[in-house]
Write a structure and sequence with these properties.
about 475 residues; mainly beta; SH3 type barrels; 6-stranded mixed sheet; 34 strands; about 5% helix
């Protein structure tokens, strides 16, 4: 599995390494670690350490790298004497100490086993391993008097080994052969890519009582399974649709920033947002620690009183509204009566937003008559630039019903037909509403609406939308005829 991961990365890493090499090492600023996480199961680790380097050719061990490191991506710099210290050879050692690893290394060697009842066994290890049998496996020893002892693993209290076998290590380690022209204590910088770490964003919104505004909070969820721990790290998150070489994701990066903006909450700055190549980079404005096998959440943004509109859509020929297009035909013979409820907002500074929003799930709540928040729907927000319109499908209206019937089909001439439809919208609510009724005129490319009882807007080559006003407790009827030519 690890071998396949490395091979999959190598081609794209050539391009990444070339760009990073041009950028060169960071300016010396003391020891520290920087972690850039991509939402494609990939992280870029940049770590600065003081190291005592010998002159000439020597071997040095660099411990504590991520267990999912790709060694082919590694870059090493001396920040004190750039160009005078280089890696001639490197190897990655990841055979970590574990119960199973120790047992495997001690096959045919002497060990001591103490069971729960304090019985002590000494002998040569013949076999060990997991099993589906009760106890999960066993240890088989040959004692000094020639007896064969089978000890169930779930009965073992302690196993003693004479020493740590050669090759087993406590932490993943890079071993380098360095050629160094400037011996002494130096500040060094190491960069590498690692798999096993990613992030996603989630949003929670609360709809006001009058349904005119929302309070929006965005969260970042980091999932670290990389085999590395990053203490007091400077955290950066990369958002965007990056081109990847399968099966492993690799970032395409540039060196220049184009714009800066700030995502803040009431307690102060959290993330600084930067336009970066064709993506967006979010930098946490304080150090944070990300432990191995940890899921961590950090507030990304907080915006109060964001103006929204509640819209109703009826698509009688298809299942539901799905911005930016429409999908999912109703099966033949099945009538669609559902009216879709959509929350619309503009991601602008005027509306207390105006920052590029990374993709993620957004959940909407609203307070009931008792003041308790109730969950009322969710949708997926795509990567959204500033000043773009966001439409979120929240579910189907309970008290509004649609009805769509084709009333006539006529052949007017050779290669000319007309189709007529009647659409009814019944409003059982106690307030007036507007329902945007969507019709798909896609039988033939050449079409014209020749008769209609309501105004319509042409949305694209084959879609029109009728905004129908429906009074409280009433019904509005739309009738139209479309003429096709081919």
């Amino acid at each position: 599995m690890r071998r396949a991961f490395f091979i999959g990365l190598m081609t794209a890493l050539l391009a990444v390494s070339a760009v990073a090499a041009q950028a060169g090492p960071s300016k010396p600023s003391g020891e520290g670690i920087e972690l850039t996480v991509y939402n494609k199961n990939l992280g870029l680790v940049t770590e600065r350490r003081f190291m005592d380097l010998k002159g000439g050719v020597s071997e040095i061990r660099y411990e504590g790298v991520a267990g999912m490191i790709d060694p082919t991506s590694l870059q090493f710099y001396s920040l004190v004497s750039p160009g005078e210290c280089r890696i001639l050879e490197q190897s990655y050692q990841y055979d970590l100490v574990s119960d199973q690893a120790l047992l495997q290394r001690y096959l045919d060697k002497q060990i001591t086993v103490i069971t729960e009842d304090s019985t002590l066994y000494e002998g040569r290890l013949l076999n060990s391993g997991m099993s589906r049998l009760p106890g999960g496996g066993s240890i088989i020893l040959m004692t000094g008097d020639g007896r064969i002892v089978n000890i169930r693993l779930d009965k073992v209290r302690e196993i003693r080994y004479p020493s740590l076998p050669e090759g087993l290590i406590t932490r993943p380690t890079m071993v380098w052969k360095l050629d160094n022209a400037s011996p002494g204590r130096q500040l060094t910088e190491v960069r590498y890519l690692t798999g096993g770490i990613d992030w996603k964003s989630d949003y929670v919104a609360t709809l006001s009582a009058d349904e005119k505004t929302i309070d929006l909070t965005g969260w970042v969820t980091l999932n670290n399974r990389s085999g590395g721990t990053y203490r007091d790290a400077r955290l950066k998150l990369m958002a965007g649709d990056l081109n990847m070489v399968t099966p492993a994701p690799v970032p395409v990066m540039e060196a220049a920033y184009a714009r800066k903006a700030m995502l803040s909450d009431a307690s102060g700055e959290q993330f600084e947002e930067q336009s970066f190549f064709e993506y967006h980079l979010y930098t946490l404005q304080r150090p944070t620690s990300i432990l191995d096998n940890e899921v961590k959440q950090i507030e990304l943004l907080s915006a109060a009183r964001v103006p929204v509109n509640k819209l109703y859509y009826y698509d009688g020929a298809r299942r539901r509204y799905s911005p930016p297009g429409y999908r999912g035909y109703i099966p033949a013979g099945v009538e669609n009566k559902k009216i879709n409820t959509v929350i619309e907002m503009v991601n602008s500074a005027k509306n207390n937003l105006g920052m590029p929003l990374p993709a993620g799930k957004i959940r909407l709540n609203k307070g009931d008559a008792d003041g308790s928040l109730q969950f009322i729907g969710e949708d997926v927000l795509g990567h959204t630039p500033k000043d773009e319109v966001v439409r979120l499908y929240m579910g189907d209206a309970f008290d509004i019903v649609g009805e769509r019937v084709q009333t006539d089909t006529r052949k007017i001439a050779d290669r000319v037909i007309e189709e007529s439809y009647r659409i009814k919208i019944r409003n059982r609510k106690s307030e007036d509403i507007t329902v945007r009724t969507v019709e798909h005129l896609d039988r033939y490319n050449d079409w014209e609406i020749v008769r209609t009882t309501a105004h319509y807007e042409k949305k694209d080559a084959g879609t029109v939308e009728f905004p129908l006003s429906v009074p409280a407790g009433k019904e509005t009827v739309l009738e139209y005829t479309v003429r096709y030519k081919w």
